Amino acid sequence: MDKLTPLKPLPSLCAVIVALVIWFVIPVPEGVTPNAWHLLALFIGTIIAIIGKAMPIGAVSIIAIALVALTGVTNPGKPGAALDDALSGFSNQLIWLIGFSIMISLSLNKTGLGARIGYYFISLFGKKTLGIAYALTLAETVLAPVTPSNTARGGGIIHPIMKSIADSFDSKPELNTSGKIGRYLALVNYNINPITSAMFITATAPNPLIVNLIAKGAGSEFELTWSMWAVAALVPAIFSLIVMPLVVYLLYPPEIKSTPDAPRFAQNKLQALGQITLPEKITLGVFALLLVLWAGIPAMIFGPSLAVNPTTAALIGLAILLATGVLSWEDILKHKGAWDTVVWFAALVMMATYLGKLGLIGWLSQTVGAGIDSMGMSWIGGTILLTLIYLYSHYFFASTTAHVTAMFAAFFAAGIALGAPPALLGLILAFSSSLMMSLTHYGTGTAPIIFGSGYTTLGEWWKTGFIMSVVNLLIWMVIGGVWWKWLGYW
């Protein structure tokens, strides 16, 4: 008989107690409906269960969906309508955009194209340790638009390449030789990830959720498309990607600074991969097609009648990979991460949406906004304060998705209440949602993979993460703010 995998008692108990206390003990605040307050109880209980890892996030999400349907908080007295509400997240196009994109990204590993791209850049720029760092940066940036799992990109594709380079210089944790080159490359390997995750809607799973929350919070004033997001991120991202390897180099300079053998090592790896295969060519073609469609190029050239919905484009790309045999249906079925993402994303989007519809987000934003307003701050000071609180509260989260779901809508609405331009505020908070990943060794799924390889100490990791958070925040708020103003976004 298979061994049962029970839920973890302590985080489960904490989630249940907090939800019950909010539901039954804490009085419903003035200006909030009982239904909204009860949904908040379920929502906070769900977030606590996710943060505490009471169960896998997909399992927690199924329980949350069931509780919303059972309690009828979204539509009291109408069980059928409440069930429709509880399942409504699965009809959200953005959720399926991420699900399909994760499935598509399978082809990078299966065909070997991801490793080929990484080794190719190292063969070009790898004569210096700093050059290897920039080669890894370029490789991940190229992969970012089509790999919505930042964990798969930074931990599954780039990290093995980084390790093989470090090993080739005999820089290994078990030999206490991480200082040669491994520590530096590991810190760079990780700190690329938050920046590339901020660059595209499809670069990490929470980004489409953010687009959804901005659209709901700003109404018709500001809605982000894939191309608008990418253009907005372009200039500050370039600055961050150039500066980051230099900052890490100054903090923890590698003992080996010249690596004349690295290009030859990468070329040997490329030779071992052989000539580019037909599946790799098809995968490249699909990725090129997706970038063209997501950027809206057909509509720009031929008119809006040829515009393709981003989720439709992802579905077309996946269909091509299946039809050509690059991916099999078995590959799709076995990819638990994609289906898991669809489930938990659907639950969190549903709950966040109905918290807004029931008026809770509006009430919370007015409360936070009034608190900041009482301090006599302008919208500029308020935006900076909101951003700092939002970003550095990530020390208390082990999931960017849980963080975004718990705080983004309220902070965005609070900033708008203070008079902040919706586009400027939305972009700052949106990009901060990825940049905050740099802070800790548990801040996102990529972190434990790279930190667990043992190249750095906890102190080195946290010091680098904090300094990079400051550097990135300054770049994206100052240079980004000027760039977005020039673009006319605010």
From TrEMBL:
It holds the Pfam family Na_sulph_symp. Keywords: Membrane, Transmembrane, Transmembrane helix. It comes from the Bacteria. The keyword Membrane applies. The chain crosses the membrane at residues 12-29, 35-52, 86-106, 118-139, 226-252, 282-301, 307-329, 341-364, 376-397, 409-433, 465-484. It is found in: Membrane. It is a multi-pass membrane protein. Belongs to the SLC13A/DASS transporter (TC 2.A.47) family. DIT1 subfamily. This is DASS family sodium-coupled anion symporter. The lineage of its organism: Bacteria, Pseudomonadati, Pseudomonadota, Gammaproteobacteria, Enterobacterales.
